[in-house]
Structure formats: structure tokens, C-alpha cells
Amino acid sequence: MTSVYECKWGILATGGIAETFSKDLLIDPSTRSVSDVKHTIVAAASSSSSSRATEFLKKVGADSSAKGYGSYEELVADPNVSIIYVATPHSHHYENTLLALEAGKHVCCEKPFTINAAQTKHLIKVAREKKLFLMEAVWIRFFPLVLELQRLIFEEKILGNVRRVFSDFGNQFAPDPKHRLYNPDLGGGALLDLGIYALTWQMITLFADPKNNKTAPSVVGSIVKTPLTNVDEFTTMILNFGPTLAQGIASTNMTIRCSDKYCVLIQGDKADISVPWAPYRPTSFTIHEKDSEGVYTGKEDKKDFDIPGHGMFWEADACARALRDGKLEEERCSLAESTITMEIMDKVRYSNDFRYPEKLEATRSDA
Ligand SMILES: NC(=O)C1=CN([C@@H]2O[C@H](COP(=O)(O)OP(=O)(O)OC[C@H]3O[C@@H](n4cnc5c(N)ncnc54)[C@H](OP(=O)(O)O)[C@@H]3O)[C@@H](O)[C@H]2O)C=CC1
Ligand SMILES: O=C1OC[C@@H](O)[C@H](O)[C@H]1O
């Protein structure tokens, strides 16, 4: 019998996504036909109190031996923890990930990796120097749906040449200046929180096209800021993928929910693929056949994908396998692609005069 690798997680922060991720970690891997890795939560930390961390561990169903800490420093010092999951607001990812790396821990950090590309590059430098695994938690990259979609596009070539991709993630949020989405001090705004999914769809379809030869796209973007807190409320980007002569249009906002039917439309010369809501947790896509003049023939093929939980366990399984195999990076969610994505967001923000407070944009002096 082959041995099962046990990945020992430390959960840094106890908010919404920390809870969702932790519950997913503890779902029996056999429910998703996985038998080579399993996950244990050995500790969690809350910046507010150790009792909050202990309550969190109970709520997510961690083993009673799991430790609850009242500071992130104590968590990263725990010798039983192998990998830290960073689940704080964007504003804190850079410092929290550095804290964990400097303590010698592998890290899986929530999206967006950091506030800007300079910070991402510094994290990569530290991880490489310390020979530690590092990944931005772009969970949809690991969905079986995405793997199948890429297989159909790049191996079976069912779309022919892919020439254009529309991707949108807009959602209707109550305009609350205290919510992290509206708060500039927490890295608020549509682009970093939601727009990163619209960009991920561009990366997994147009950037990943073998003909693109891993070339970063050129980008122009336009931003409308909310008068409430001056963070971006609407952002739209046009991306030109030079080697493939394909164009991407990626949009995001936090006022209008994107269409239930078409959040993503991948257009080739033989067929299109549409992906309905939700762009951050897709469960189906439809292939629309076209005739030689590019007109839909009416022949459609819908593919549905079951998610036995929320769907965050697939990225966790990838982290576990990387640790087991001594890999410092996961190729499905590479550090190079995270850097390119951050650079795109920087370019669009800075060219539209949208900067976060100086303390959020700063990198440490050794960066
Ligand atoms: N992959 C996905 O599907 C999703 C990813 N995310 C990402 O996860 C991150 C966290 O989002 P979410 O869980 O919704 O946020 P929450 O506000 O629900 O939780 C954030 C947690 O971070 C900790 N924290 C530390 N410092 C601060 C601070 N100054 N202000 C607020 N919280 C602080 C708190 O935990 P404590 O008190 O325990 O320290 C808090 O509970 C974001 O970067 C977001 O992009 C969010 C939702 C979905
Ligand atoms: O990652 C996310 O996906 C779902 C959104 O509603 C959330 O704001 C975002 O952080």
C-alpha cells in the first residue's frame, strides 16, 4: 500500500475565507477521489485573541489537539506546522507572508498575493533564498473544470484558434465604507478582489495558449472610482496577447453582478465556450458550435462539474503534493504568472492614478 502524505496546516486569521478553506481541508479526500494526500489543521491564530482562535478551530471541526494562538507570531513559531495559509485582508498579505517565510514555513497566501508586483517579487526572493514553497491561492486554477476546459482548447483544439476572451467578475455589494472591499486601508476596490478572477480567466485561456509562448500581454485599462472611499468601483482592461494576435477584455466592478449566463466567453474560429456564474466558482461550461462563417449552428454541449464541498481543497491538495515532492512552486499557479498578474494590475492602477496609502504600497528596505 502506498503511503498517504499528511499536510500539516496552520491557519493565519479566522475570518470568512479562513473558515471556508479550513472546512474544505477537513473534508475526506476520498469524496474527490484523492488518496495520496490528506490534510490536518494543527493550529490557527487570531490577531484578536487566543479564545477566538480556539473557537474557530472548534467551528471548523479541527482535532481537539489543534492549538489556538492569540498572535500570528506564535503560529509561525509552532514546530508542528508545515505550511501557513494566509487569510488576512489584501493589505496584510505581504507582511504576514514574510513573517511566515522568515520563520521557515511554506506559505499558501490568499489572492491577491500582495498590493503590488514589487511586494510579490520580494516574497518570491525570500522564498527562494530560504528554499520554501510559496503559492498565491488562485483556487480556480485547480478546478477539474478548468483542467478539462484547457484540455479541450489546447489539446483537442475544439475552438480552433482562440482569438478573443471576454471575462467579467462584477457583483453587487452594499456600499459600506467599513467593509474591506470599500476600505482603502485594507486594499479595497474591485480590481484586486474581484478583477483578479477576470484576469485569471485571461491567463488560463490566452496567456496559457502554447502559441503565446508565456508572453506577458500589453494592457490598457480604465477605472471609475467610488466617491464613497475613492477605491476603484469599475475597472475594465484590454489585453493584447501579441504572439497569438488574440485580445482579451477583462472587466470587474462591485456594483452590478455579471450576467448569470456569460461571465466568461472564450471565442475561437470554430466554436465558443461560455462559462456562466460564478466566475470565482464555476460549475459548468457550454460549447457553442459555429459554422464556417462564424455563425452559431445551434449545436451546444453543456458540461457540468460537481464540487463536493466549496472547492478549495484542490489547491490544498496541490500544495500538499508540492511539499511531499520537495517542490518550491506549483506550475498550475506559478510565481511567474502571479507576478505578471500583479504587474497588469499595477499598470492599470498607476496609469489611472489609483494608489493605495503609501504604507500599503511600500516594500521592506531589503526588497
Ligand atoms: N479565494 C476565495 O474565494 C476568497 C478569497 N478571499 C481573500 O481572503 C482574504 C480575506 O478575506 P475575508 O476572509 O473575506 O475577510 P474577513 O474580513 O472575513 O477576514 C479577515 C481576517 O483577517 C484578520 N485581520 C487581521 N488584521 C485585520 C484588519 N486590520 N482588519 C480586518 N481583518 C484583519 C482577522 O482575523 P483575526 O482577527 O482572526 O486575526 C479577520 O477575521 C482577502 O484577501 C480576500 O481576497 C476572500 C473571500 C473569498
Ligand atoms: O475571492 C473572492 O471571491 C468571491 C467574492 O465574493 C469575494 O469578495 C472575493 O474575495
From TrEMBL:
Mention one GO molecular function. nucleotide binding
UniProt cross-references to InterPro entries, sorted A to Z: Gfo/Idh/MocA-like_OxRdtase_N, Gfo/Idh/MocA_domain, GFO_IDH_MocA-like_dom, NAD(P)-bd_dom_sf
Q: Which reaction does it catalyse?
A: D-xylose + NADP(+) = D-xylono-1,5-lactone + NADPH + H(+)
Q: Per its UniProt entry, which superkingdom is the organism in?
A: Eukaryota
Q: Which UniProt keywords apply?
A: Oxidoreductase
Which E.C. number(s) belong to this protein? 1.1.1.179
The transmembrane segments are none
- Taking every annotated instance into account, which residue ranges of this chain make up the domain Gfo/Idh/MocA-like oxidoreductase N-terminal? 32-135
Domain (GFO/IDH/MocA-like oxidoreductase): give its ranges.
154-271
According to its UniProt record, which protein family does this protein belong to? Belongs to the Gfo/Idh/MocA family.
What Pfam families does its record include?
Answer: GFO_IDH_MocA (PF01408), GFO_IDH_MocA_C3 (PF22725)
> What protein name is recorded for this chain?
D-xylose 1-dehydrogenase (NADP(+), D-xylono-1,5-lactone-forming)
